[in-house]
Structures are given as structure tokens and as C-alpha cells.
Amino acid sequence: MIRFEVTEEPSAGVDGERFCFAPGLGLWHGRTSANGDIVVGEDQLRALVSKVRTGESLAHKLDELLAASWDEALEPYRHAGDGAPVTWLHQVG
User: Fold this and answer.
1) Where are the beta strands (DSSP E) in the chain?
2) Domain ranges, residue 62
3) Which residue among 14, 37, 45, 85 is least crowded, i.e. fewest CB within 10 A of its CB?
4) Structural domains counted in the chain
5) What InterPro entries does the record tag this protein with (predicted)?
6) Which residues, other chains included, contact 59 with Cβ-Cβ below 8 Å and sequence gap of 6+?
7) Residue 90 within a domain
């Protein structure tokens, strides 16, 4: 099954974006700040608070807004970024 994460770095005056996909979770999209934090808008928070009835429900919805499940599913694949050490599975030489 395919899984991916695509990020657009922020530039002057423009937030970045992040798209994540993991099997069983589907697609998640969010804006990111200059330091990589997920940006949650005021309207998103107001809508969330107006719908939840319990603290547990609030925590679950905040995790959804912050892509916690996607982070957990994708974390094992993130170590292969720039500057990561190379592990040779098989080297022909």
C-alpha cells in the first residue's frame, strides 16, 4: 500500500503546506508555519469546540487537526531524509 508525505516549504509571507497519506487513514492536508508547526486557524478551533461534548472528544479532534495518526504511521519512513546515514542493503562492487 502506498503512503507518502509531501511538504512545501514556507516562503516570505506565505505559509507552507503538508500533505500526508497513509493506508486506513486517507489524505490529510494542513498549513505549516516557518518552523514547521501545523497552523490551526481560529475558525477551525471554533468549529471544533462547538461540536465536541467531552474532553476525550476534544483531545481526539485536536489529534486529527494536528495529524497525530498520520505522523505515527509515517514516522518509520522519515529517517531517509537529507543528511540521514546510508545503510547498504546490498552492495555490488
Assistant:
1) 4-8, 16-22, 26-32, 38-39
2) 4-79
3) 85
4) 1
5) DUF3145 (IPR021491)
6) none
7) no
